[in-house]
């Protein structure tokens, strides 16, 4: 029987560490996606004894008006009407009202397209005779319009940000293993986060919303500000070692900082 060597044991453990880093990264990416401002508002309500599931858009390209589609159960098709109630957020003006058109089991209304970064808050109401319901109750859905971003640029941004999260998690796990060096992972984390957050990110934001940077100190967008703080954390970790290995405590702190800030939803205080 072939005896397991220290090197093979190390490689096996290293593979498990990579697997854990990938799991953490995927978990963070999914969480960011689900809690982000572009993820549709989903829900289910009961109206006239029927359950209605809905998915309302919170992001739209400003090439055309944004369709809002409600699929009705067979028992309500042809009996229920709908309308959109919308206005710009915090606008002290009367609400705009637009009727939705019926087509089979679908009700469809269109929110007028807006300039990049333009927003509406809106409700979807269903009506039959004297009975009426708002799909989201008293809380409106907020939709933000954006310019069209080319697929290659968007994919490049997503890829390098994913790699930035991956190398950040891997560097933190390496810092917990005395036999493993951290410098390479820390450098890769810093480089990929810089490319994703300070090269591709501003390009995409300029195309989509008209601004290169909306975080500190120019604005209060949480996504940009988080990226800045994470970048500072990794630069500090790299500088902790100067020409030698970065200090493990600093690398671990930068990794935990990255993890903590990625748990804050995108643009939680607006943008």
Would you kindly provide a written description of the structure presented here, covering whatever features stand out?
The chain has two domains: 144 residues, no CATH class; 106 residues, Sandwich (Immunoglobulin-like), CATH 2.60.40.10. Helices cover 42% and strands 23% of the residues. Strands 3, 5, 6, 9, 10 and 11 form a six-stranded mixed sheet that branches. It has a three-stranded antiparallel sheet with strand order 4-8-7, with no helix packed on it. Strands 1-2 form a two-stranded antiparallel ribbon. A hairpin with a 2-residue loop joins β9 and β10. α1 packs across α2 and α4 runs antiparallel to α5. The protein is elongated, with a radius of gyration of 24 Å. 28% of the residues are buried.
Topology of this protein?
Elements (H helix, E strand, L loop, with lengths): L5 H30 L5 E7 L2 E7 L2 E3 L4 E6 L9 E7 L8 E4 L1 E3 L2 E6 L7 E10 L2 E4 L6 E6 L4 H25 L7 H27 L12 H18 L8 H15 L9
Parallel strand pairs: 3-11
Antiparallel strand pairs: 1-2, 4-8, 5-6, 5-9, 7-8, 9-10, 9-11
């Amino acid at each position: 029987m072939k005896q397991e060597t220290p090197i093979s044991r190390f490689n096996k453990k290293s593979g498990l560490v990579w697997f854990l880093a990938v799991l953490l990264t995927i978990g963070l990416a999914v969480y960011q996606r689900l809690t982000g401002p572009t993820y549709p508002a989903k829900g289910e309500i009961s109206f006239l004894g029927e359950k209605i599931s809905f998915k309302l858009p919170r992001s739209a390209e400003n090439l055309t008006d944004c369709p809002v589609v409600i699929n009705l159960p067979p028992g309500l098709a042809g009996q229920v009407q709908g309308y959109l109630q919308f206005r710009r957020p915090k606008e002290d003006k009367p609400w705009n009202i637009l009727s939705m058109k019926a087509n089979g089991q679908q009700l469809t209304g269109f929110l007028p397209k807006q300039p990049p970064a333009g927003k509406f808050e809106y409700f979807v109401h269903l009506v039959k005779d004297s009975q009426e319901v708002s799909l989201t109750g008293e809380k409106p859905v907020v939709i933000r319009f954006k310019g069209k971003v080319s697929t290659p640029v968007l994919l490049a941004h997503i890829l390098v940000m994913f790699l930035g999260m991956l190398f950040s998690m891997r560097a933190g796990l390496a810092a917990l293993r005395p036999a493993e060096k951290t410098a390479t992972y820390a450098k890769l984390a810093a480089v990929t986060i810089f490319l994703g957050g300070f090269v591709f990110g501003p390009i995409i934001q300029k195309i989509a919303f008209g601004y290169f940077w909306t975080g500190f100190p120019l604005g209060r967008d949480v996504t940009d500000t988080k990226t800045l703080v994470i970048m500072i954390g990794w630069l500090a970790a790299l500088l902790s070692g100067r020409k030698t290995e970065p200090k493990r405590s600093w690398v671990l702190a930068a990794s935990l900082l990255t993890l903590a800030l990625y748990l804050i939803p995108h643009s939680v205080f607006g943008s």
